[in-house]
Amino acid sequence: MEKNKVVIVRYCEIHLKGKNRGYFERVFMNNMEKALHGIRHEIRRPSGRYLVENFDESRTDEIVERLRRVFGTHTLSVGYKVPAEMGAIWDAVLAVAPQSGTFKVQSNRADKHFPLHSMQLNAEVGGRLLAERPQLRVDVHAPQNTVNIDIREDGEALVFCDLVKGAGGMPVGTSGKGLLLLSGGIDSPVAGHMIAKRGMTISGLHFHSYPYTNMQAREKVEDLARILARYTGGLELYVVRVTHIQEAIHKHCPEEMMVTLLRRFMMRIAEHQAEACGAQCIITGESLGQVASQTIEGMTSSNAVVRTMPVLRPLVGFDKTEIVARAREIGTFETSILPYEDCCTVFLPKHPLIRPDLRKVELAESHLDIDALLEEAYASLETVSIR
Ligand code: ATP
Ligand code: MG
């Protein structure tokens, strides 16, 4: 009797999009295909969900792991596709049902030709399971496991048990494009993940101060980008050197303004690069009041140089503990806490300005040849394609 292993993928939110539904579903399908690159498979879309089939069964876990990170995925189940007749269904039930604990059977009969209606099928399969596995007990209200049987219109049935939670959100590629300022810290990868989850395509921009910062710091950022890329289906990482800018600020401007002024340069470079790569906004990992440079005055000062696009700060209202929890969940935390220096720690003043006054900041900056410093930074740009 033929019993084919399948992965069932259910998507979220996409159904909310009315007329655009077809478009959202195509993007989602495409993103799943990308995520499964290198694994033989077929994806089909019989009504309301996706079926991954014809893959090497030894790679089932890997397929689930990859697909659960694709934004738009609500839940996944591993199960079997069998001919819609009792012998084959029972065979599949034995393969997915637990050995012990509480369970119920939940059947769904789209094909009304099937001789038993759902209640009868529930009772029949439930009864057989109880007889076959004495350690099982029925609990129809709060079972530990639900054995699902879907009798479909095409003469096939799907039999599955566990639901795995997917990443949620909307398919990447359906909400425009943003440039994420990606440091090696805890916050910015989480910020990028949050915005990508809303369907936005992300590119990353990282600033380094080589030789004050080292190659390990750079590799750490590439590792973080790689973790993000598992959710976004790859991303471009731009890397720009700002050493000369920090040296110029250090030499010509008040010490306590280092961070404030550097932030303004970062924002200028970000806007320039966003325009160059077709991004429509800048994304940062700032959270209100977390450190001296993240006061509302600090944000005002850095925001003031961005002319043509919004700066998204998805973490602005988050506590550090909430951000850390999210970082652990998405798998970036362990990499983020590796101890390499970030460029912001170079020439770090003892008493950074906490509430910078925009006019004083602009005055301090007037001692610098801003355009020349920017040109040198743009010239240092490197692009790393993270897949
Ligand atoms: P993170 O954990 O993201 O590093 P943080 O709490 O250390 O944040 P800051 O160092 O003040 O805070 O940085 C605030 C934001 O500025 C970061 O979240 C990031 O978006 C951006 N940023 C800081 N340093 C860099 C860098 N070297 N390259 C790119 N972006 C940076
Ligand atoms: Mg940081």
Present the secondary structure layout:
Layout: E1 4-11, H1 21-35, E2 42-44, E3 50-53, H2 60-68, E4 73-83, H3 86-96, E5 101-109, H4 118-132, E6 136-138, E7 145-151, E8 156-160, E9 164-165, E10 177-181, H5 187-197, E11 201-208, H6 215-232, E12 235-241, H7 243-252, H8 258-277, E13 281-283, H9 296-303, E14 311-312, H10 320-330, H11 333-336, H12 358-365, H13 370-379, E15 382-386
Parallel strand pairs: 5-6, 5-7, 10-11, 10-13, 11-12, 13-14
Antiparallel strand pairs: 1-3, 1-4, 2-3, 4-8, 4-9, 7-8, 12-15
The structure holds adenosine-5'-triphosphate (ATP) and magnesium ion (MG).
3D structure, described in words:
By secondary structure, the protein is an alpha/beta fold. The protein is built from 13 helices and 15 strands. The strands form two sheets. Strands 1, 2, 3, 4, 5, 6, 7, 8 and 9 form a nine-stranded mixed beta sheet that branches. The model has no long low-confidence stretch (mean pLDDT 93). Adenosine-5'-triphosphate binds next to helix 5 and strand 11.
CATH topology of the largest domain: Rossmann fold
| Cα end-to-end separation | 40 Å
Q: Can you identify the CATH superfamily of the largest domain?
A: HUPs
- CATH architecture field of the largest domain: 3-Layer(aba) Sandwich
Mean of all residue-level pLDDT scores: 93
Helix content: 25-40%
Shape: elongated
Alpha-beta content class: alpha/beta
Rg, nearest Å: 27 Å
Question: Helical region count?
Answer: 13
Element order, helices and strands? EHEEHEHEHEEEEEHEHEHHEHEHHHHE
- Strand content is 15-25%
Unreliable stretches = none
CATH classification class of the largest domain: Alpha Beta
Could you say which small molecules are bound to this protein? Answer: adenosine-5'-triphosphate, magnesium ion
Counting structural domains, the number is 2
Q: The biggest beta sheet, please?
A: 9 strands, mixed
Oligomer: single chain
What is the count of β-strands? 15
